[in-house]
Amino acid sequence: MSNRHLARTIAVQTLYQWDFNEQKKDIKEIMLGVRENFAPEFDDGQFINHLIEGVVKNLKAIDNLITKFAPEWPMDQITIVDRNVLRLGTFELRFDEAIPAKVAINEAIELAKTFGGESSGKFVNGVLGAIYKDMGEKEVDKINKEKIKKEPDEENKTPAIE
């Protein structure tokens, strides 16, 4: 198991316990307990912290995205495992520019298959795929707008004004 995959595994287990306890327990304490029990000699703790802090910091926006792209599944009806795999995957996909989109999606699918139910991988793939598709369309629009700004106006040979 790679260091990054192990870090994501610890992050999902931490988020799961935090969510299971209705977000009332200290998440850093939970993370330390998970690390101690699951991977006591693991040395990439900063990545785990980055993931957990990123999810917690952006929790409302992440949950809104999941709700938007899984409208038939209210957050409280998504299993705790799937919900937290989606949270982690959505954070990496939308909020962490250092993680390639395909890596974020593939890692989330693998975590869902490992810890979730029979259809968890497909569910996570569907939701994150929809979020990715929406991102793609917005990115294309952004690139096109930037391109238009840079292209000179045909008559005046000056940059076009938007």
UniProtKB/TrEMBL annotation:
It comes from the Bacteria. Residues 7-133 form the NusB/RsmB/TIM44 domain. InterPro entries: NusB-like_sf, NusB_fam, NusB_RsmB_TIM44. Keywords: RNA-binding, Transcription, Transcription antitermination, Transcription regulation. It holds the Pfam family NusB. GO terms for molecular function: RNA binding. GO terms for cellular component: cytosol. The keyword Methyltransferase does not apply. SUPFAM superfamilies: NusB-like. Residues 143-162 are annotated as: Disordered. GO terms for biological process: DNA-templated transcription termination; transcription antitermination. Belongs to the NusB family. Involved in transcription antitermination. Required for transcription of ribosomal RNA (rRNA) genes. Binds specifically to the boxA antiterminator sequence of the ribosomal RNA (rrn) operons. This is Transcription antitermination protein NusB.
